[in-house]
Amino acid sequence: MRKQFEAQLEDLNMRLIKMGALCETAIARAIRALLNKDDELAQQVIDNEKDINHAEKEIENLCLKLLLQQQPVASDLRVISAALKMITDMERIGDQAEEIAVIVKRANLSDTIQTLHLKDMAMATIKLVNDSIDAYVRRDLELAQAVIKGDDVIDNQFKDIKENLIEMIRNQCQNASMAIDIIMIAKYLERIGDHATNIAEWVVFSITGIHKEGKEI
Amino acid sequence: MNDIKIENLNLYYGNNHALKDVNLSIPKNEITAFIGPSGCGKSTLLRTLNRMNDLIEDCKILGSVIINDEDIYTSGVDINLLRKKVGMVFQKPNPFPMSIFENVAFGPKTHGVKNKKQLFEIVERSLRQAAIWDEVKENLNKSALSLSGGQQQRLCIARALAVDPEILLMDEPTSALDPISTNKIEELITQLKEKYTIIIVTHNMQQAVRISDNTAFFLLGEIIEYGKTEKIFAVPNDKRTEDYITGRFG
Lengths: 217, 250
Prior knowledge:
heterodimer, A: mainly alpha, two-stranded antiparallel ribbon, 7 helices, B: 250 residues, 6-stranded mixed beta sheet, 10 helices, globular
């Protein structure tokens, strides 16, 4: 039975890695589409969002099957319960990448983005998502903890962009709808950072049994 | 408050060192589970708690087992009184070949209760506590052997309760029962902890998770890890515990 269970856990692991890769691709493409005003790439992000949803459903079913069949304990229990939580955050990352792509298709923001350092924020967010998935793949506690700390940087970048936009509006900005679009994108990026942090927190839990605030199960 | 304190306990069956330097504090009114592979010493330790190992030839015990501030291995301890205080329920239901009533009344009679009314009260109270009264109250004079396996096990629990113990030792009490009877016994055990301190040996990991407050994991006569059950089954400290409870062992 243990052999079969090991195979099922490996299957779960591979599926999570694949879903993580889909999220990494989605956010990277959405940002590239934003920076280059690439509508075709933005459309790909929108089209591929359903693949992430599908992966979430499949992993969810597998986790429920494992809980039922194997009644897992110890590290097995932590890995499966962490997986169940992580896929919700991954799915939300997919949703938010799609939302960014929708705005990219509708508006041309590439010039303004340069002045607002949105690119820096986008690159930091991509790194955070990639690192959170890598931390899971490599069971890397240090990297997961670095992701949790790294989220503060993105939060501060969001605040800066917000203040710059307020300044722009105050100075009689010509294009109010553009300002709204940019604040929306910045907010999506900030939320993606939060989801990457959540993923990293569940990676820490699956390794140590401690989730947030130092509380052990 | 700790009900049972085991200190530096070593047990030998001839040359076989079956329990090695066991130290354990078992809290009052909680359920403590002993888990581990066959032959790891968990049933042996259970049996030391009411000196059942005294019956085994060549068995040598060093160290102490303190129950209510008294070391049960000092000379002069009344073994009958000890076994009244520390009751035992075995893996296979073992009712005496006599009526349901007589099975439960047997212990109190041995300890000197003769008054019929009083005996009936004890029998009814014990059968109620063991959650079997409603099923047998019309048939108290029927042979205990006519009961189902699950009923027989609850009768044996009633028999153990009839002498008013403080501690109940249970050696795989549900391993011979179907899931419905197992469920009834588990419910009963969790109710009984209000009044009794319970120690259960089980091979069923999920049972240990469901009903016990504390778990001790044994391997080759040693306690490898002991702590709150939730902790042991979620984040064990020792890799050997993790390997055993997840089935990676061996």
